[in-house]
Each structure stands twice: as C-alpha cells, then as structure tokens.
Amino acid sequence: MSLMIVGADSLGSIKDNVKRLGFEEITHLNGRKKSKFKNFEIPAKTDYVLVMTDYINHAVMRKVKRAAKDRGVSVIYARRSWASIYKKLQRRAAFIQ
After folding, report:
1. Does the pLDDT at position 95 exceed 60?
2. CB 3.0-4.6 Å disulfide test: which of 3, 7, 68, 75 passes with 56?
3. Do 50 and 12 meet the contact criterion of CB atoms below 8 Å apart?
C-alpha cells in the first residue's frame, strides 16, 4: 500500500512508523508553499493521503481534498504527532491492529 503525506517540514520517525504499519511507498510534500501545488496531482497508486493539519495552509488543503475526491482516494486528517496519526489510521484502515 502507498501513502502520500502532505504537510510538516520534516517527518522524523513518522515515516518509519507508517512503514511498520504496512505502507511500502511513502511520498511526502511540505504543505507550506502554495506555489508548489500549482499542478498538484496525487500519484496513481496512492491508497491514502495523510494531511498534517497543523502544518498546511488552507489553499493547499482545498487542492489536496479536491484531487483526492477526483481520484477516489481516502484523505486522513491528523495533527503531527504519532499518537494522533496512529489513532486516525486505525479508525480508517482495517489492516491496522
């Protein structure tokens, strides 16, 4: 499974933690600059989009939400803490125990 993370300048241990949950391919985009999202597209094989709500501006959030809806990809909104991310992933994805 693959995951696209939008927001947060750096992921720290989050990337390793989501890999342990079964995500093989992880794409990360920092969500601060709107200019990087002019031609925003979600990669074709993305299963989930994780949006770090405390590190993203509103215009980027709308673009991500619209692109995910067009592709039929689930969007998960969480704060940049592993406890919050894990809790949201656990609710949304049946594969997490």
Report:
1. no
2. 7
3. no
